[in-house]
Amino acid sequence: MARIVQKFGGTSVADVNKIRKAAEIVVKAASEGHEVTTVVSAMGHTTDHLISLAEQITPTSGERNPREMDMLLATGEQVSIALMTMAIQTMGHEAKSFTGAQAGIITESRHGVAKIQEMRTDRLESSLARGEIAVVAGFQGVTENEELTTLGRGGSDTTAVALAAALGADRCDIYTDVRGVYTADPRIISDARKLPSVSYEEMLELAATGAQVMNARSVELAMDNQVPIRVRSTFVPEDVGTLITHRVASPEYAIAGISCDMNSASVTLKSLDNVNESKPLEGISALFTRLQELGIQTDMVMVLKHEDEPSQELVFTIEKSALPRVQQLIESLALSLGNPLMQVETDIAKVSVVGRRLTNRPEVVAGVFEVLHNASIPVQMVATGDMRMSVITSAKHGREAVRLIHQRFNLSDGSITV
Amino acid sequence: MARIVQKFGGTSVADVNKIRKAAEIVVKAASEGHEVTTVVSAMGHTTDHLISLAEQITPTSGERNPREMDMLLATGEQVSIALMTMAIQTMGHEAKSFTGAQAGIITESRHGVAKIQEMRTDRLESSLARGEIAVVAGFQGVTENEELTTLGRGGSDTTAVALAAALGADRCDIYTDVRGVYTADPRIISDARKLPSVSYEEMLELAATGAQVMNARSVELAMDNQVPIRVRSTFVPEDVGTLITHRVASPEYAIAGISCDMNSASVTLKSLDNVNESKPLEGISALFTRLQELGIQTDMVMVLKHEDEPSQELVFTIEKSALPRVQQLIESLALSLGNPLMQVETDIAKVSVVGRRLTNRPEVVAGVFEVLHNASIPVQMVATGDMRMSVITSAKHGREAVRLIHQRFNLSDGSITV
Questions:
Q1: Where are the alpha helices (DSSP H) in B58-184?
Q2: A133, A205, A194, A124: which is closest to A166 by C-alpha?
Q3: Sign of CA pseudo-dihedral A148, A153, A155, A161
Q4: What is the ipTM of this complex?
Q5: Nearest-CA residue of chain A relative to B92?
Q6: pLDDT given at position A250
Q7: Backbone angles phi, psi at A67, to 5 degrees
Q8: Of B115, B165, B166, B172, which Cα lies nearest the Cα of B140?
Q9: Burial degree of A83 (CB within 10 A; 0-12, 13-18, 19+)
Q10: Per CB distance under 8 Å, which residues of A are interface residues toward B?
């Protein structure tokens, strides 16, 4: 008998029939003698519908109260847990639903992007001890003051992993609408290969760079807590999917996959004034402190200081949705940033090659540049790290770049060559 | 400065524009310097939609888990409070939303029909003290064990009145889609007259016999706590509506109004066996104890014992929706009820004349019989009490009976004659 956490995303519970299908998977595991905790997201487009209601009430996103948005959005998952529990009960198995608060998911009070602070799982433990399937609302938590919070994008994955860690689960199954983690998005690359396993680190980079199969924060949480994750399909449950674990299954030099992120915008700041020499980075430091406080993630941060010029240049990417807040922030910090000239690019694609020890593999960098050059695909920015190489190109070239790189490194047949 | 509770029903918050309209009423009161707590129901047909989802998952109503139904239905009001709060904030006023749990509405654990046990309003008091408009989810509460509960039909009215009592509010305004309490349903009787005021007792009888403007339980709660209620229209807020209070505004002999209930079913039990002489009512007592435990309300209960026969006859009415549970219950108690023959009528209308001291006014009873007889409208059952006279007729004659009685007592012009 194992203790299992199973998470079903929005597409897996999009309608009543799909909820039944998911319930069958849950009941099957319980019938095999396992202790099952299941985490569910809001049904299909519920969250979008709720957001559109809020947009009608308060058109300007900056004016929408984050506390009230959490109050609103938390209802989506609550509907799902009630229906999922009824579906399980109708199949003859004991089950009980739990809101984030009831499941003991205690968070900090930053609405919309709250981080989990503590897990108080005694109610869930009692439920499991009674032989019930515990059905927990993903994406939500509660503060010490009983304020409802949400965990931000991919929050249901985070709930599932945090529960798996707190309950000491043997594994955490993330059920979704794809069969696992692929070498590239199968909607772009028809012969992309499904990885039998991938390391936490590789998955983290893939998620951080646009692979939508799992959220980066939840992968990090799984890594920190050594929770083995299986990404698998609700609609093809016999497929074991992809195992995410610390075990290195792929050979050392392998490229795990290629991701493509179309949701980023790049921001370039050229400081026109002479920034105080003794504290040249003070303004930039203030900027990033504020970005962190606002829960806005940045990527591909680069600072250029031309030796012969007093000005400096700062470049980074953010999610497009954060752009209004970032622009407002930069305006408020203009003086300490040297009254910068701001350039924003939203029509971009970020293509990332993820694998181990890429810094030791200049041939990967060379190969990427080679195929993009041969195809006359423009490269606006490049950043490389130990685990990945990311290239910013124009949005219209994104898919083609993924296809060419996937082909260049022969990722479809598993015999990766660099 | 007064302390006011304002409640907006489902039709008053049916869409985004109506929520804005309601928010305007709330903000106006707050701007006039009043301390405002507002209670909102689920938007329009939200509850019906949620119930239909549950019906798809679990078709048999008796098998639907009451705890999970509460978990599901409570989301409807939670959406409303978040949107209402955002609407108020967008108009520039401070506001904060509260679930039933956050508002401190502690209930017993009978899911679906939970009664309020205690009000812990310290969080609301703090919110009001900060100058915020407190926006509270109607219809829901929480048990000591943090289980979500709902208060049953008309639960949002109950929430509003209970809050008004606990907060020591000066008045409780129930905003709805009609302008007040009428002498009869204005959709049936075009010249029905709006009552300027009505006593708690009269309103209680009207509500209990099918007037849908307010829920009987909440009227009772208002009466017990001496909370003055104003029933008024969200869409014509300048109309002061009808005041419900202990003050007797109408003359002693007046008929307050006529209600018509199409949602009742009658149950007749004819005991065929000789019921134990020493305890002739034991079975009936057990039946009504169980009905009470199940939260099923009965009306027009009559027991007939024919002197020359060993059998007895029991008749009562219930809500149609409770019929499957009642039938099942009677089957389980068949032996102690003397293996009764059960007859059920669902195609009925209950027409009630409500007024003070009707028992002292046989001419009211006479007048009702007179018009129904003249119009050849069949009368299946009659029950009279101090405050009302109810007649069961066939469903198709309900409206006509209301019209004829309304006309007979000249209720349209206020100069009531018996």
A1: 66-90, 122-129, 155-166
A2: A124
A3: negative
A4: 0.70
A5: A63
A6: 53
A7: -60, -45
A8: B115
A9: buried
A10: 16, 19-20, 50, 53-54, 56-58, 63-65, 67-69, 71-72, 74-76, 78-79, 81-83, 85-87, 89-90, 96-97, 99, 101-102, 146-148
> Considering the entire predicted model, what is its pTM?
0.77
Q: Are A381 and A392 in contact (CB under 8 A)?
A: yes
Q: Indicate the pairing of strand A242-245 with strand A197-199.
A: parallel
Tokens of A125: 């433990």
d(CA B64, CA A380): 58
First to last CA, chain A: 43
Residue A56, H or E segment: helix A46-57
Amino acid letter, residue B96 = K
The average confidence (pLDDT) of chain A is 88
Tokens representing B124 are 């609301």
Whether B102 and A146 lie within 8 Å, measured CB to CB: yes
Rounded Cα–Cα distance for residues A102 and A142 (Å)? 9
Q: Out of A85-94, A170-179, A263-272, B272-281, pick the least confident.
A: B272-281
CB B254 within 8 A of CB B267: no
Per-chain mean pLDDT for chain B: 88
In this complex, do B79 and A96 lie within 8 Å of one another by their Cβ atoms?
no
Q: Does B71 sit within 8 Å of A78, measured CB to CB?
A: yes
What does the block give as tokens for B251? 């003359």
β-strands B229-233, B171-176: how paired?
parallel
Buried b (16+ CB within 10 A) or exposed e, B86-107: bbbbbbebebbbbbbbbbbbbb
Structure tokens at A201: 């680190």
Task: List CB contacts (< 8 A) between B71 and chain A.
Answer: 78, 81-82, 85, 97, 99
Q: β-pairing, A312-319 with A298-305?
A: antiparallel
Q: What are the two backbone dihedrals, phi and then psi, of residue A253, each rounded to the nearest 5 degrees? A: -90, 0
Give, to the nearest 10 degrees, the angle between helix A362-374 and helix A398-408: 130
Instruction: Determine what percent of chain A is predicted with pLDDT higher than 70.
Output: 91
Q: Around Cβ B248, how many Cβ atoms within 10 Å?
A: 14
For residue A143, pLDDT beyond 70: yes
Q: Cβ of B57 and A87 within 8 Å?
A: yes
Sheet containing B116-119, strands listed edge to edge, beginning at the edge strand earlier in sequence: B116-119, B105-107, B140-142, B148-150
Distance to chain B for A31, nearest Cα, Å: 20
pLDDT at A276: 56
In the block, tokens 């509500």 appear at B207
Encode pLDDT of A145-197 as tens digits.
999 999 988 899 999 999 999 999 999 999 998 999 999 988 888 889 998 98
Render the burial of A201-221: b for 16+ CB within 10 Å, e for the rest.
bbbbbbbbbbbebbbbbbbbb
pLDDT at B278: 46
Q: What does the block give as tokens for B225?
A: 């706590």
Query: For residues A183 and A413, is the Cβ–Cβ distance under 8 A?
Result: no
Structure tokens of A359? 């810094």
Q: What are the tens digits of pLDDT across the range A270-304? A: 876 665 554 556 777 788 888 888 878 888 887 76
Beta strands in A290-406, from DSSP E residues, in sequence order: 298-305, 312-319, 341-345, 348-355, 381-384, 388-394
Q: Compute how many other C-beta atoms are within 10 angstroms of the C-beta atom of residue B26.
A: 26
